[in-house]
Amino acid sequence: MADLATLPTRRDEAWRYSDLEAVASVWPLPAPELIEVAAGESVARVIVQDAPATGTAIRAYRVVLHAGATATFHVLNTGGKLGRVEIDVTCHDGAHFELGAAMLGTGDQTLEIVTTLNHIEPNATSNQIVRSVLGGRATGSYLGKVAVARDAQKTDASQSVKAMLLDRTATANAKPELEIYADDVKCAHGATVGELDKTALFYLQSRGLPPAEAKTLLLRAFVGSVFDGIADADEREAVEAAAQAALERML
Amino acid sequence: MLQIHNLHAEIDGKPILKGLTLTVNAGEVHAIMGPNGAGKSTLGYVLGGRPGYEVTEGEVTFDGIDLLTLAPHERAAAGLFLGFQYPVEIPGVSNVQFLREALNAQRKGRGEAPLSGGDFLKVARAQAAAIGMDAEMLKRPVNVGFSGGEKKRNEMVQMGILSPKFAILDETDSGLDIDALRAVGDGINRIMRASDKGVLLITHYQRLLDYVKPDVVHVLAGGRIVKTGGPELALELEAAGYAEVVA
Fold first, then answer.
1. Which parts of the sequence belong to the ABC transporter domain (chain B) (predicted)?
2. Does residue A192 sit at the B interface (CB-CB below 8 Å)?
3. Which of A159, A186, B58, B197, CA to CA, is 20 to 30 A from B42?
4. pTM of the model
């Protein structure tokens, strides 16, 4: 989390890929929204960040999960010159945090998802899936820190981060950061950056799909299942439609 | 129906097709046979419009239109179908979703109304049943986890649904066991054997031609058609080998 008193610089790990000019334009930031989940309870949040192209949208959440509590976050981060979603999670015994996120950016956009998972007690689990599609000169960054305290044994934290670049001028950063002080933990992380499969594109076009439709189909498949876990069907369809519209805008 | 005249094409500056001339009339099945590296697959890709396959000389007309000026999806809408030697796996995209979008894109290109989900499913199920493919596979991601035979059957299902005027089938027989070979052969006959349709069968072996009887057989070597004959030419090739017949 940022120190609220001083404007961050590139030396601050959590801001090193950010658009600091845009950050300055909205400085100082309001305090993060606090979400505290009582023992055994669960909470679900769907965040659609689709600010106008010239805007700066920084959304920050501080989540405290008491024993056995669960938080499920779904994030579509697609708007703004700078669009940034920060989630700082503290997990007590047996808590679970789930993130399904998509970053869809083009033009000069800077999009960021910054998560910090503090596993301070044993048996907590977290699962983060992030899919980015970036075109133009956009930058999409995922910074995922996992801190496992000394006695937080049986922690199971996983991150799966994949980015697709539509243009060679776009940039994807994926940075897992693990700080582990316990010895019986699982922290899996995987990151890939790729381009659209040209053979698949030709295959789809040879069956009659125009290039833009073929690309949208492949990108929709790539972003795929990140929003499947949204329980409310109307909410899920709204997010999927917003993601589809964002993809079509990029092509 | 399909007229190829003096076609030259290259990949990365390397000439592959060197003056290929060929005419397929409506109602005919032509087989193209030839040794490895002769340019058989290149011919298929050039006709399908695959990026990277550059035509440097010659013309191709399809039903009187200049095929080479069309983008791949426009060639499909004009009625051309390219069967792939290695059908591509597309994770996350279901067969039905892809085929319905493809068919409706083609119909739109021809100024026809789109097919509803229900009507499309009927057509798709009928085509799957005709080729002996489990209808459940229509719901699975395109070719993902399909065996070699299942992929080729899936190509036939696609061809049946799209119902093209002209099919270019690139080694559709490779990797097939006897049963799958017969099923694919029957599929080609059922879907494409008609007085207003045409087929270009690209193959290494005579065995597919036992099921799909060609009207004309061409031997492609060194980027050109070096010999043309009737069905007996395929048998001759099988017995004597390419080197003997081409020499």
1. 2-247
2. no
3. B197
4. 0.86
